[in-house]
Amino acid sequence: MNEGLSNTSASINLKTVWLSAYAQFGITQEMLEAGQAEILAVEAQDETIMREKGDAQNATMERDDSFEKLAEWVQDYETIARIALIDKPQLLEKLGIVVK
Fold first, then answer.
1. Rounded Cα distance, 46 and 51, in Å
2. Segment 31-90, tens digit of pLDDT
3. Do 64 and 75 touch, CB atoms closer than 8 A?
């Protein structure tokens, strides 16, 4: 006897047994299939959420890196402005640099 057919036949018999057992509780094959579809949808949504969470973490890291570079640039700008305008504190204040 072909083993593939034997396994298929056993699988069909097992499925029939389970469906009849579920039927005693008012659960149909359609209800089981709908439940399975919902589980697959939740799994797909979970994958989407995890991917978006990773994207958000990457975006946060890029933002933080950009802010760090900007802060360094602003610090250099203020240092150069203080040197260039050492005699003109009013101009420094116009640039938003507090003169002590």
1. 9
2. 999 999 999 999 999 999 999 999 999 999 999 999 999 999 999 999 999 999 999 999
3. no
Amino acid at 31: M
Interacting residues of 90 by C-beta distance below 8 A, sequence separation 6+: none
**pLDDT at 99 exceeding the cut of 80:** yes
- For the chain, give the number of residues: 100
Look up residue 31 and give its two tokens: 């209800």
For the CA atoms of the chain, what is the radius of gyration?
Answer: 34
15-to-12, 29, 61 alpha-carbon distances in Å = 5, 10, 51
10 Å Cβ neighbour count for 32? 13
CB atoms inside a 10 Å sphere around CB 91 = 13
Read off the pLDDT of each residue in 9-38 and give the average, rounded to a whole number: 92
